[in-house]
Amino acid sequence: MLGWLPLRRVRVRGGSMAPALSDGDVVVAVRRRPRVGDVVLVTWDARPGQLSVKRAVLRGPDGWHVEGDNRAASTDSRVLGQARVHAVIPWRLWPSPGRV
């Protein structure tokens, strides 16, 4: 999903990660091993080709249980099952640069 580059710029869509991230925020995804609590870039087998930004909650045998910070506005592992994590999102580039 990231190609051969270790970094990828990603635009957040939707409100599932509020208040940490908002619709339209631009973040950096870094290919590295996730830890519980990290904001991550994921895919699900149930939705091939769709990238999502969620928070890593628990490492499972077949992937990660991930959830949006705004539970009321998030479709995540509670519905779609374990996700495949492709990158960790440590920084926001825009509109207010800094750590996520």
TrEMBL record:
CDD domains, sorted: S26_SPase_I (cd06530)
Keywords: Hydrolase, Protease
The keyword Phosphoprotein appears for this protein: no
Pfam families: Peptidase_S24 (PF00717)
GO cellular component, one term: membrane
Main location: membrane
Occurrences of domain Peptidase S24/S26A/S26B/S26C (ranges): 10-71
PROSITE patterns assigned: SPASE_I_1
GO MF annotation, one: serine-type endopeptidase activity
GO biological process, one term: signal peptide processing
Subcellular location: Endomembrane system
This protein's name: Peptidase S24-like protein
Organism, scientific name: Actinokineospora auranticolor
Lineage of the species this protein comes from: Bacteria, Bacillati, Actinomycetota, Actinomycetes, Pseudonocardiales
